[in-house]
Design brief:
By secondary structure, this protein is mainly β. The chain has one domain. Helix content is about 15%, strand content about 40%. The strands form 2 sheets. Strands 1, 2, 3, 4, 5, 6, 7, 8, 9, 12, 13, 14 and 15 form a 13-stranded mixed β-sheet that branches. The longest helix is centred in the N-terminal third of the chain and has 20 residues. The chain is globular and about 55 Å long. It starts with 19 loop residues before the first helix and ends with a strand.
Amino acid sequence: MTVPGNSAIPQESAGSWCDATWLASERRRTIDTTDQQSKAGLTMAFTEWTMQGVEFINCNCAWGCPCQFNSLPTHGDCRALGFVQIEAGRYGEVPLDGLRWGVLLSWPKAIHMGNGTFQGIVDERADARQRAALEAISQGRDTDPGTLIWQVFATTMTKVLPTLFKPIELAIDVENRTATLRVPGLLEGAAEPIRNPVTGAAHRARINLPAGFEYTQAEMASGRSRATGAIPLDLPATHAHLTRFHWSTHGVVR
């Protein structure tokens, strides 16, 4: 479906996945809006949720991804997938422990320029309530504006495709910078350590973002993914990162 009225992130953020400047201004706007609603006797009725686990991201940028540093994407556009293994979580009274979910993403230019396309993929093992919960979280609902990657991404989307309910095979080892991913009939992906081009030795690099709206620290890796369907991907040896996360209705928990 098409989502009208979503405003793109301001151009100064340069498409960053974790832009602290935009985050601060959005938080200020959220506080101002909340104050106005309070004075008017209105409240934002969010379902409180939280989840912890591990995440695998692979995009079409070069290793390190310039978007992490408020620069434009390597090739001018952004195509990516992100998948999550929940270790512990809940959405209201709905338990989410052990479930998996992911997203396929595409923007014709930098993320902040908008016109994105989104498709969520939810673990077929989830029951009806869990499916609704994971769909809501992945689409940025029930989340304070500007505090979490999925809510920020939602503001840049003009097309949200129907959620798919599929088996998700996912294994993530953050410390060793490895991941394997498979959604039968739709996509396959993997991550491995970046290698020294001369010696072939594993090269370790991290990004630390104290105010990031996805993670505080992530391990960099080399990713490869192929996806068919509405958002096709062909990512050979491109940027990937792996991280342990703790997210909630109110953003990244630190």
